[in-house]
Amino acid sequence: MAPYLTVSTGMVADEGLKKLVAPQAGPREYQVTWHRVLLLTYQHIASIYGLHLLTTRAAWPTIVFNMVTFYLSSLGVCAGAHRLWSHRSYKATRPLQMFLMLCHSIASQHSIFIWVKDHRLHHRYSDTDGDPYNASRGFVYSHIGWTCVNRHPEVQKRGKLVDLSDIFANPIVMFQKQHKEWLNMVMGFILPTFIPMYFWNETFSIAFHANQFRYILCLNGTFSINSLAHMFGTQPYDKNIAPSQNIITTLTTCGEGFHNYHHTFPFDYKAGEVGSFLNFSTSFIYFCAKLGLAYDLREVSKDVLEQRMTRTGDRSKDTYGVQFMRKQEMKEESAD
Ligand SMILES: [Zn+2]
Ligand SMILES: [Zn+2]
């Protein structure tokens, strides 16, 4: 991989463009993509039926398999598209990149290429019209609405300026971009339906609908970072930004809900202050580093973190993350 980009994520050469200051959402007209609305509606209904089948009729290997594919797809999004490719918070060997690319295809959230481009815009223009998931437009828009309407002109304009040179130079990400339709179909839907039917004689209906539940759960987990974690929670690191520490998104995304921390220190591979606690992606990256598959893990230093908390954090109430961090520090001090 190319060296770390010199500018922090969201790298956009936008001199001369209108300055967007959060929270901001100008008047706009929506063009609804109706086939997308219908597809998502069907998939949500199918996923509810899938949950019903999982809790009443599915064989136990199907339940275990469903959980495994959920965690794999979450890893593809969180440890892969987000922390590795969007933020370059660590480096990964080719085998690990291949694994994460396939996991991202299980999640079937478009392609890593588009994911990274949108996410860099999100960090650069958080909660403004340059942010694809602009939370200033409300919960529904930032959660799922943005995927069902035309892109805002500011997103289109500024999206062309995002520096994606590292992504263009990555053959694994570009392979997925080129073949995303069949990769997403095979990894995200055909194989997860076929495997339970072939190996333990699960019925088509149960295997198919259980997988729909897994897909929709992972999708809404990702969406909730853009909606819930930009609206509800605490801001112990920077009270001047909307992204917040949100326990619900922490639980639904395997550890991405420490969002005030993440937007304050986007280069930190942990995307949170608590290490592996409630943060499956951090455990995974740490484990891969032990195996030599991940390296150059970037972290914010304790000093910088404390200084930033003092300077911009809301200290009126400590979150569970901060409390956990303090307890860990006390343990380390008493062990010394
Ligand atoms: Zn965010
Ligand atoms: Zn991010």
Automatic annotation (TrEMBL):
<feature type="transmembrane region" description="Helical">
    <location>
        <begin position="63"/>
        <end position="85"/>
    </location>
</feature>
<keyword id="KW-0275">Fatty acid biosynthesis</keyword>
<keyword id="KW-0443">Lipid metabolism</keyword>
<keyword id="KW-0560">Oxidoreductase</keyword>
<keyword id="KW-0479">Metal-binding</keyword>
<keyword id="KW-0812">Transmembrane</keyword>
<dbReference type="GO" id="GO:0004768">
    <property type="term" value="F:stearoyl-CoA 9-desaturase activity"/>
</dbReference>
<keyword id="KW-1133">Transmembrane helix</keyword>
<feature type="transmembrane region" description="Helical">
    <location>
        <begin position="182"/>
        <end position="200"/>
    </location>
</feature>
<feature type="domain" description="Fatty acid desaturase">
    <location>
        <begin position="59"/>
        <end position="266"/>
    </location>
</feature>
<dbReference type="GO" id="GO:0005789">
    <property type="term" value="C:endoplasmic reticulum membrane"/>
</dbReference>
<dbReference type="GO" id="GO:0005506">
    <property type="term" value="F:iron ion binding"/>
</dbReference>
<dbReference type="Pfam" id="PF00487">
    <property type="entry name" value="FA_desaturase"/>
</dbReference>
<dbReference type="InterPro" id="IPR005804">
    <property type="entry name" value="FA_desaturase_dom"/>
</dbReference>
<keyword id="KW-0444">Lipid biosynthesis</keyword>
<dbReference type="InterPro" id="IPR015876">
    <property type="entry name" value="Acyl-CoA_DS"/>
</dbReference>
<dbReference type="InterPro" id="IPR001522">
    <property type="entry name" value="FADS-1_CS"/>
</dbReference>
<keyword id="KW-0276">Fatty acid metabolism</keyword>
<protein>
    <submittedName>
        <fullName>Delta 11-desaturase like protein</fullName>
    </submittedName>
</protein>
<comment type="similarity">
    <text>Belongs to the fatty acid desaturase type 1 family.</text>
</comment>
<dbReference type="GO" id="GO:0006636">
    <property type="term" value="P:unsaturated fatty acid biosynthetic process"/>
</dbReference>
<keyword id="KW-0408">Iron</keyword>
<keyword id="KW-0472">Membrane</keyword>
